[in-house]
Amino acid sequence: MAPSKELLAILLFQAVGIYAQAPVYGQCGGIGWTGATTCASGSTCVYSNPYYSQCLPGSSPNPTTTLATTTRTTTRAGTTPVTTTTTTARTTTTTPSAPGNEPATFTANPNIGPGGSSFRDSPHFRVYGATSTSAADAALNMLEAAYSCFVGTLGWRSPGLSYNDNTDDDGPWTKINIYSVSTLPGAAGVMHADYATGMAWLEVVHQYLTIPGVTVHELGHGMHYHEKTWVDQGRTGAWWETVANFVADTFKTSPLCASARSQYGQSATATEINLSKVIGDSFQVIVDGSVNTGNYYEAWPFLAYLTYNPDGYSGLGTNALRNLFRQYAKNSNETPLHTLARVSNAGVPIIVGRYWARMAYADIGHPTAGQVFLSQRSRLNYANLDSQGNNAYKPKSARRPLYMGANIVPLKKSGAVTVSVSVSGATLAYTATLSIRNTSSGSTRYVNLSGGSASASVASDEEITFVIANTPANLILYDAFSLSSEVKNGLDYSVTITGATP
């Protein structure tokens, strides 16, 4: 079936203020932020996501405008033939090692998108309409670095290959067109797919062209599209934004992209992680596309966990997301969690349960998520339980963990103690864990509840969190844009805790 055009947008918001300086790795901006917006000497405030900017040492400043995400629209694609006058454009980057039979330089096609006579070229991309050659060249180097990482290093299918091409090693290989535009309806960036050629093309508002959280995010949609299997599948629909933010964050932060960034003069920048949503609303369905309340833009740390694979589960690691694309049952309309069950024999309940246990301290293998957690934790919403007396607690009805969601409950203690936890009356299958962190070294350990109970000796320099996740053995076929009553059925339970209190 011919692919549809994926139209994906990012709304714009702005938050400004002047306060005392924030420390290195401290927060310095974001929607709702009322603290310091300038950084201590030697660090710079770097945009991460709509709710968080961070003081990073030795970083180059980003614009003060912050971004928030919004709706996804799907329409049919078409082509508009355009007559253009070609101008001379120089290549701005060196050429990475080409995977397989890929040529060093792709062929431009000005008929993909509106075309134009003002453009700049690199081996794999063409940028039209940039406000300056420096902006175009900066964007091209950023895009080439992202391409080098995801195609050259991680082995994703090249977005230079048509969606319609079933023989990947012979091309044709076409440049990805990016159009820098003055405005988009409520958006900073958008990805389109051309019906006839099977090629993705992007539009980005001028001032966001060189911001990876916008342009690499949209390229992430393009790479997702060119992997082909998750296109026109309703149950993968909301995961498009999850994937795009994973791509943007991995490009910005990951050691996996360090060589590619270095090759094209790109620096590591602040993470996209939004812990106020990931942890504060951890009870939600693991990827939830509900209008205004969903988490599908913020749920990408789950993909990062699969990629960094700190628990060493079989089938996971560097190629985890690529394998989820490649092993998706074509045209099955299954969920990515169903594919995950085939990619790893560890079992989805175990994987999801440990992911949430590690999110207690953002200890998922991500290079900077733990630092962000330490700077934000005092402002996160942990109001999950109500006391029932006699050391017993139950989840608030509005925060019972939904499908593959969790309650994360930090516990208070004094000195060295033995903490005992017992879960009873659970209405659904669950995975529960005691997450323990050494406050001096930062090292973590995890104690699984067996038969509903566990005890752990917790040293005076350790902290402990109780985590319980809704992890049914039988996976549910659900559409994240239209949640069924089955996935919205929250896990009710009673937990008795001694040696510490929520």
- Overall pLDDT, averaged? 87
Which regions contain 5 or more consecutive residues with pLDDT less than 50?
A: 1-19, 59-97
Structural class call reads: alpha+beta
Largest sheet: 5 strands, mixed
Number of domains: 3
Strand order of the largest sheet: 10-11-12-14-13
Overall form: globular
Number of helices: 10
Helix content: 10-25%
First-to-last CA distance: 53 Å
Rg to the nearest angstrom? 23 Å
Total strand count, please?
A: 23
- Proportion of beta-strand residues: 15-25%
Short description:
This protein has helices spanning 133-153, 212-227, 239-253, 258-263, 275-278, 301-308, 320-326, 336-343, 348-359, 369-376; strands at 5-8, 12-13, 21-22, 27-29, 38-39, 43-49, 52-57, 66-67, 72-75, 119-121, 125-128, 176-181, 189-194, 199-205, 385-389, 392-395, 406-411, 417-424, 430-438, 444-448, 453-458, 462-470, 494-498. The longest helix is centred in the N-terminal third of the chain and has 21 residues, at 133-153.
Itemize the secondary structure elements and their pairings.
Elements lengths: L4 E4 L3 E2 L7 E2 L4 E3 L8 E2 L3 E7 L2 E6 L8 E2 L4 E4 L43 E3 L3 E4 L4 H21 L22 E6 L7 E6 L4 E7 L6 H16 L11 H15 L4 H6 L11 H4 L22 H8 L11 H7 L9 H8 L4 H12 L9 H8 L8 E5 L2 E4 L10 E6 L5 E8 L5 E9 L5 E5 L4 E6 L3 E9 L23 E5 L4
Parallel strand pairs: 3-5, 11-12, 12-14
Antiparallel strand pairs: 1-9, 2-8, 4-7, 6-7, 10-11, 13-14, 15-16, 16-23, 17-22, 18-21, 18-23, 19-20, 19-22
Helix pairs in contact: 1-2, 2-3, 7-8
